[in-house]
Amino acid sequence: MSQTKQKTIFNVNYLVKVAILGAVARVVMLLEFPLPFFPSFLQLDFSDLVPLMGSFAMGPLAGVLIQLVKCLLHLVTGGIGATGGVGDLANFIVGAAFVGAAGLYYKYHKTKSGAVISLLLGSLTMIVAGGIVNYFITIPLYGLAMDWSEEMILGMSSDVIPAIKDRFTLILYAFCPFNLLKSVILVIITLPVYKPLVTALRSIHKT
User: Fold this and answer.
1) How far is C-alpha 161 from the chain's CA centre?
2) H or E element at residue 194
3) What's the rounded Cα separation, in Å, for the pair 30 and 48?
4) How does DSSP classify residue 166?
5) In sequence order, which residues have a C-beta less than 8 Å from that of residue 50 and are 6 or more positions away?
6) Could you tell me the domains of the chain?
7) Average pLDDT in the 56-69 region?
8) 33-34 and 43-44: which strand pairing?
9) How far is the C-alpha of 13 from the C-alpha of 33, rounded, in Å?
10) Helices 49-58 & 3-29 angle (0-180, nearest 10)
11) Angle between helices 86-108 and 112-133 (to 10 degrees)
């Protein structure tokens, strides 16, 4: 078999696996739920685990692409009606920051300590990216896509967290703690299971 043909088959297999894992992540996303101590528009789910495993097994680009497939599938199966696509945009950027940073570090440090550091790095990146994206992009876009004024969003949020007074405190007391909590849970779930899952994904990736 020629090198060009082998490369073509590899690329097709790579894309198929990315698509399958993206679909699996979308299914996991169906289990999202609100938390009583955060505004109702912040929904917790663990679908980032799938692109994270893909990132560890196939590289950071694969993790980002899996995240993209997941968000696109959510968008076309009801996401537009829920948030006008704004939530999916934020989900993709923040999730991609998490799996991309974690996967990039793990690519060069494939040890137990490397996994821990990669997850901590990914968590920090997710929290920072979430704060920036929501402050400058998500909150303003909600007003355009959903006709939600910033005052309405702040009102919904301050009903749950009275310390929220403006956009900055919304990020500080809602989005950042939410992403911190989510990242802690993801780290706790990932550390005991990542090795066998990544090994299995790598064996499939090589076929």
Assistant:
1) 24
2) helix 176-205
3) 12
4) S
5) 21, 22, 24, 25, 28, 66, 70
6) 3-32+40-205 (1.10.1760.20)
7) 96
8) antiparallel
9) 33
10) 160
11) 150
207 Cβ contact partners less than 8 Å away, ≥ 6 residues apart:
13
Longest pairwise C-alpha distance within the chain: 66
Q: How far apart are CA 14 and CA 25, in angstroms?
A: 16
Q: pLDDT of 73-98, one tens digit each?
A: 998 887 566 667 888 899 999 999 99
Q: What is the number of other CB atoms lying within 10 angstroms of the CB of residue 136?
A: 12
Written as six digits, the tokens of 140 are: 């303003």
pTM: 0.90
H-only helix segments in 30-111 = 49-58, 60-74, 80-83, 86-108
Nearest alpha-carbon partner for 45 in 112, 111, 94, 3: 94
